[in-house]
């Protein structure tokens, strides 16, 4: 694939429908606007090796910059439109880009920019759950490899793809937007992070005759709990990624979809989004179980159970952070940070290595506890974590944040359920009842925010 040259090959003026105020807006001059934006960027001296930071929401303006920048070989750095001024400035200071575009279209040119490799397509920042966000560098070659893998391995059901995820991370940008778009399909681009979109998802699917969309578990819970199902049977496949898809959410979503297959996908930003899924599974749903990766090698560290992957779509490293890069890259292998098992056909994930609870040397996987608690008829969701000692050095207890379905939930009955299914040392010592699981801008549970809830209770 001649990546830069092929970016606009399959695009037309109706390739993207922009959903605004619950109405679809077709940009009949989309291609003309992209070409105009390319010309403007060239006049400003931008090209391969230059970094372009985009602090824009899902919009026509964002698409113009993204597609024009990709066609010119510019290294693009999309940031969340909800980023604070301090967060944006911190990224600018680290990157020293050539140009920054703020919400509303205001541009700021940096007088002394630094250059990156001419092969770099994106720098995507991780959510920063374990420290400050790291800038994942994805080259044009890695991105082209990933799009080719999708073409070979994903169901061909992307004719009308709904994208309601933000375009500043791999799942939304690569899997839910660029792949269907560059393959010649139509994308209905909705604003991200809007409750009214999630609660009216069924009617949006019907109105725009959507054939597929991708989501995260937290959005699926909202859509199925508060919204009506789609009625027109246009959907062919639905995908879910970025966080653990528990059995209860899979079951309620599958029922809501009325027989449409819900695919659980596995991937991460460092691997240019999805690397595997459960596409070959035909016998029901097995939580945290995936087919072996597409066109990639996989191995496991025997002592810890940590999973390593070697892939042609792997990042080249973290931007200007050789120490962090060295910790996860070794002879072409990527340390995923996931703990699990590998069989001849599947990967079975147990959890994240940095979320494993260690009580006196005994390792406990939070997802095992979550699976049990979600069996309770009055529990909508839950999140389990290790509660640190006062000095923050060791886990001294297990805490669980529980979201009830209704007011009849009794914590004592949750504890009783745990006693029936879990060893005594795995039963949470502290339960906290809340109205929701805090999530970050990507829809993932916000571990830090949940930890603060328990700290507040303790204080």
From TrEMBL:
Residues 41-102, 115-319 form the AMP-dependent synthetase/ligase domain. It comes from the Bacteria. One of its GO terms (biological process) is fatty acid metabolic process. Signal peptide: none annotated. GO terms for molecular function: medium-chain fatty acid-CoA ligase activity. Keywords: Ligase. Belongs to the ATP-dependent AMP-binding enzyme family. This is AMP-dependent synthetase/ligase domain-containing protein.
């Amino acid at each position: 694939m001649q990546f830069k040259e092929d970016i606009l090959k399959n695009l037309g003026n109706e390739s993207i429908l922009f959903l605004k105020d619950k109405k679809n807006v077709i940009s009949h001059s989309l291609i003309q606007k992209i070409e105009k934006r390319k010309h403007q960027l060239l006049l400003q001296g931008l090209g391969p090796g230059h970094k372009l930071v985009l602090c824009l929401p899902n919009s026509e303006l964002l698409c113009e910059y993204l597609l024009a920048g990709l066609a010119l070989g510019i290294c693009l750095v999309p940031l969340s439109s909800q980023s604070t001024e301090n967060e944006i400035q911190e990224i600018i200071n680290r990157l020293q880009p050539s140009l920054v575009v703020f919400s509303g279209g205001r541009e700021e040119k940096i007088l002394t920019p630094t250059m990156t490799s001419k092969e770099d397509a994106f720098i995507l920042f991780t959510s920063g759950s374990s420290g400050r966000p790291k800038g994942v560098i994805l080259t044009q070659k890695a991105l082209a490899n990933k799009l080719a893998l999708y073409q070979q391995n994903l169901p061909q059901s992307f004719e009308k793809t709904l994208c309601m995820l933000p375009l500043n991370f791999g799942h939304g940008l690569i899997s839910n937007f660029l792949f269907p778009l560059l393959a010649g399909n139509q994308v209905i681009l909705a604003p991200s992070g809007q409750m009214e979109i999630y609660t009216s998802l069924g009617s949006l699917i019907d109105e725009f005759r959507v054939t597929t969309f991708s989501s995260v578990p937290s959005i699926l819970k909202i859509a199925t709990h508060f919204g009506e199902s789609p009625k027109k049977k246009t959907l062919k496949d639905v995908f879910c990624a970025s966080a653990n898809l528990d059995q209860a959410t899979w079951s309620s979503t599958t029922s809501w979809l009325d027989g449409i297959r819900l695919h659980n996908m596995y991937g991460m930003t460092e691997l240019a989004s999805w690397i595997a899924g459960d596409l070959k599974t035909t016998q029901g749903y097995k939580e945290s179980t995936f087919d072996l990766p597409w066109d990639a090698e996989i191995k496991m560290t025997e002592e810890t159970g940590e999973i390593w992957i070697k892939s042609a779509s792997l990042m080249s490293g973290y931007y200007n952070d050789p120490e962090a890069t060295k910790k996860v890259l070794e002879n072409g292998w990527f340390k995923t940070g996931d703990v699990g098992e590998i069989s001849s056909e599947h990967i079975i994930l147990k959890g994240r290595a940095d979320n494993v609870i260690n009580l006196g040397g005994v390792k406990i996987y939070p997802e095992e506890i979550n699976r049990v608690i979600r069996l309770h008829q009055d529990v909508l969701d839950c999140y389990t974590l290790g509660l640190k000692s006062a000095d923050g050095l060791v886990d001294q207890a297990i805490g669980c944040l529980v979201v009830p379905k209704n007011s009849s939930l009794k914590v004592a009955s949750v504890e009783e359920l745990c006693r029936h299914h879990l060893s005594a040392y795995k039963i949470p010592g502290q339960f906290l009842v809340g109205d929701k699981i805090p999530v970050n801008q990507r829809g993932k549970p916000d571990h830090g925010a949940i930890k603060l809830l328990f700290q507040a209770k303790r204080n």
